[in-house]
Design a protein that fits this description.
The structure holds 2 protein chains of 2 kinds. Chain A is α+β, with helices and mostly antiparallel strands. Chain A contains 18 helices and 21 strands. In chain A, helix 16 packs antiparallel against helix 17. Chain A is globular and about 80 Å long. Chain B contains 12 helices and no strands. In chain B, helix 4 packs antiparallel against helix 7.
């Protein structure tokens, strides 16, 4: 009898442990989990340029200043103070003292100087360094003592201090190289195609108000999962704690299952836009080149597109009609005087009539009798763009314009819009990470820019308004006065709104899903939307333990 | 198995009729009822609406029409090319046959899908959806002859060495006349078989291109574009009516196979 009883107790204990183990292990280890959609290409923070490597950089890298993703203000991190001088060429830092890298190597100004020299080394081809390349000449670093240094660039850089948000400081002396970090976590294990495991940095400098060392969570496991359906199922089954960026369909699906899981943080920085090919040497007939160069034609096409419908139907309501180059999510730089172009086909037709077009049997024709018909290319496989293209097709048929939608594989599309210029109109999006127009918009709006898509790499501006934009962009880039810079870029936005070389369609919303188990998570519109405050995030039982 | 063939033929006739007279039984396949995206089946929309509010029943009928009419046309084109290339090579034999078959093997070794994507990308952009779909299937027809040509070549070779061809040669028949009057008519059963086999293959290939977004242009539907809606698990759960194009596709392809099996069995 007593033997049976002991066996039963043992059986119940074993069964209970077996059933509880997956969840209990995760909880007792204080492990946060989420998915990367591909393997990180590098662990060197200076070489990070795709999402996965940037995620690792954000979680492990210590930076001098950090842009607070919620307030969009720059906040001190490893540098307690900084000063930009010499007309925007020099920045001087005062560093936090007594800090060490994750392997115990002390942190000094030499490490900052080493990181900057590495970053600007032309042989390394650091994507992070590209934003700092202001002109010919070497970057000078001057170390005053262990906690003070200055960096001088060959030419002024507008918004210089904000660029340091992306620069993870590396150790000059540690034998572990990029394995020694100053951020909240350090990489401890990586299985290609499977996962990346991060562990709390024992020497991380930040503490909470109660004096407890951050981060709260001991380990972060990044499962490598390219399939979005699987990622969603993992979240539903509690195997991961959040999804950083969700599609509108997944958002609605999850919302139906559990509304508390999903967060729509509002309009993001990303935009979707179409443009006409205005390259003078393109192999298009002259009459089409004339249409595309006409501001009235572009404005008319823009007014004939129902942006509200695009946002409501194509993006399931998780987008907003776009206004111009910047979205309202960019709190400081967005020109609040501007409004999205209204959907007004009468006004559109009236503009076209004034420009010499006329309707004949329901078909719009130009003054020489050519029926208005053009093709719109977009990349195959992007359902949102394909939906938008189909909707634009129906909208334009309302003003007698025949639109042929062509989906191309991405390399063919890039070949057409950057080399052969054998296309008429293109629909693409812009993923925007930077708030400052100096880093995100320069290459788009300067007429000599490669990303000046409607007519790139111009030797001299083709139109007076492009010349004015060039002048304004240089003006804002060379000024250190935020008000002057803002005024100049406001005018750029106005010209873009009036001329519409890009017909901005929608700004999509930043959508995320977060398990109720994760605490102190405040999804925002700037990347990384969910884990921007990773060191302050805790899991359910951690909070309970603290109470 | 006669009943299976009858069922296959009957079903294909019904589907063909429904598609040909789609204009009378369904609303426009292109109009977007934007206030009713992804609506459930109703009297107005028998199979609900798609993500842009377009009537799914109309799109299934028109998509079936596109695939059912153009796939046989592409199959006919590829079969003719296969007869021309494979038949001539097999009949002439020797170095010509070896050279043509080596070229055919090279053609077969090319990655089809990438070749189609590349050729598709090189074509002019400003074409109407109807032209675009015709181009897609013409491409399929032009690129799909190689496997059939190999089979036909082997058959033509054995025919060229057969007694009745020897007799025809002895009677003074030669060259094109021999090929046209004696060889080609005797290749008919195998050409028909290749034709029937090609139809479902081309339908599947167009569907594959459609799944990649490179098939028929908007707003024209095809089975490929309709099957794309099933790509995401999350998009289809709770909407079983979205499976109708898939079911129709499987049944139609199966019917083609049933008809083909019955064609082959007497031989």
């Amino acid at each position: 009898m007593s033997r049976n009883f002991v066996l039963r107790i043992f059986a119940v204990f074993v069964l209970g442990s077996a059933l509880a183990s997956p969840f209990a292990t995760a909880q007792s280890n204080q492990q946060l989990r989420f998915c990367l959609h591909s393997d990180p290409k590098t662990f060197n923070p200076l070489l990070a340029e795709e999402d996965s490597s940037e995620t690792i950089r954000y979680l492990t890298g210590g930076v001098l200043m950090r842009l607070n993703r919620l307030t969009q203000d720059l906040e001190p991190e490893l540098a307690t103070a900084w000063r930009v001088s010499d007309g925007g060429k020099t920045i001087t830092f005062k560093l936090r003292g007594g800090l060490s890298f994750s392997d115990g190597t002390p942190f000094t100004a030499d490490d900052v100087a080493y990181t900057i020299q590495q970053m600007m080394d032309p042989n390394l081809h650091s994507p992070t360094g590209d934003a700092f390349r202001s002109g010919d000449g070497k970057v000078q670093t001057r170390v005053f003592d262990a906690e003070r240094l200055s960096v001088t660039f060959p030419a002024p850089i507008a918004g210089l201090d904000k660029l340091f948000d992306q620069v993870a400081i590396m150790s000059a002396k540690s034998p572990k190289k990029e394995g020694a970090v100053l951020g909240p976590y350090a990489v401890v294990d990586y299985k290609a195609g499977n996962y990346v495991l991060l562990e709390k940095n024992p020497n991380y400098w930040r503490h909470d108000s109660a004096g407890k060392q951050l981060p709260y969570i001991q380990t972060v496991r990044l499962d490598i999962q390219s399939n979005r359906d699987n990622e969603m199922l993992k979240l539903v089954h509690g195997e991961i704690d959040f999804i950083n960026s969700l599609d509108a369909e997944y958002f609605d699906k999850l919302s139906q299952q559990n509304p508390s899981l999903v967060h729509d943080s509002g309009v993001s920085l990303d935009s979707e836009q179409m443009w006409f090919n205005q390259v003078p040497t393109s192999p298009l007939p002259d009459y089409k080149k004339a249409w595309f160069r006409s501001t009235a034609f572009r404005r008319a096409i823009s007014e004939a597109i129902n942006r509200e419908d695009l946002a409501r139907v194509a993006f399931r309501g998780h987008a907003r009609p776009a206004v111009g180059p910047l979205s309202p999510a960019n709190k400081f730089w967005f020109n609040t005087k501007l409004q999205p172009h209204p959907f007004d086909q009468k006004s559109s037709l009236s503009r076209l009539t004034q420009d010499g077009f006329h309707m004949q049997d329901g078909v719009l024709k130009d003054r020489d009798g050519h029926a208005v018909e053009f093709s719109l290319i977009t990349n195959a496989g992007n359902k949102y763009r394909e939906r938008m293209a189909a909707m634009i097709q129906q909208d334009l048929s309302g003003i007698g314009v025949k639109l042929n939608v062509v989906t191309l594989d991405f390399p063919s599309l890039i070949e057409r819009i950057t080399r052969s210029f054998d296309y008429e109109a293109c629909l693409l999006g812009l993923i925007n990470n930077d708030l400052d127009p100096n880093s995100s918009q320069m290459n788009v709006w300067l007429s000599s820019g490669e990303n000046h898509q409607w007519n790139p790499n111009q030797k001299t501006p083709a139109t007076p308004w492009e010349a004015e934009i060039d002048k304004l962009m240089h003006e804002q880039a060379n000024s250190l006065d935020p008000r002057k810079r803002k005024a100049a870029f406001d005018r750029v936005q106005e010209i873009a709104w009036e001329q519409e070389p890009f017909i901005y369609l929608v700004n999509r919303n930043a959508l995320a899903a977060v398990s109720p188990n994760a605490r102190n998570v405040h999804p925002v519109v700037l990347r990384p939307q969910v884990y921007w405050n990773i060191d302050e995030i805790s899991l359910g039982n951690e909070v309970a333990k603290n109470r | 198995m006669k009943w299976a063939r009858l069922f296959g033929i009957g079903f294909l006739i019904v589907v063909t009729f429904a598609c040909v007279f789609a204009n009378f039984v369904a609303p426009s396949y292109a109009h977007q009822f934007r206030d009713e995206p992804e609506a459930a089946p109703s009297r107005q929309h028998l199979l609900g609406t798609d993500d842009l509010g377009r009537d799914r029943f109309a799109r299934v009928l028109y998509g079936t029409r596109v695939s059912l009419l153009l796939a046989p046309a592409a199959a006919l084109l590829s079969s003719l090319l296969a007869v021309l290339i494979g038949g001539t090579a097999g009949f002439l034999g020797g170095r010509v046959e070896r050279a043509v078959m080596a070229a055919t093997d090279l053609f077969l070794s090319l990655p089809w899908l990438f070749l189609l994507i590349t050729v598709r990308a090189l074509l002019p952009l400003n074409v109407s959806p109807i032209t675009s779909v015709a181009i897609t299937f013409a491409l399929l027809g032009c690129l799909g002859w190689a496997a059939a040509a190999r089979v036909i070549c082997a058959d033509a070779r054995s025919l060229a060495h057969s007694d009745f061809i020897l007799l025809a040669r002895a009677s003074g028949s030669s060259g094109l006349r021999l090929l046209w009057r004696q060889v080609v008519p005797n290749l008919q059963p195998i050409v028909f078989a290749q034709f029937w086999i090609s139809i479902p293959v081309f339908i599947l290939t167009e569907a594959n291109l459609g799944v990649l977004g490179l098939g028929v242009a908007e707003p024209l539907p095809s089975w490929g574009s309709l099957l794309r809606e099933l790509q995401s698990y999350s998009a289809i759960t709770g909407q079983p009516w979205q499976f109708v194009p898939l079911i129709l596709f499987v049944v139609v392809v199966s019917c083609f196979h049933l008809v083909l099996l019955e064609q082959e069995s007497p031989a």
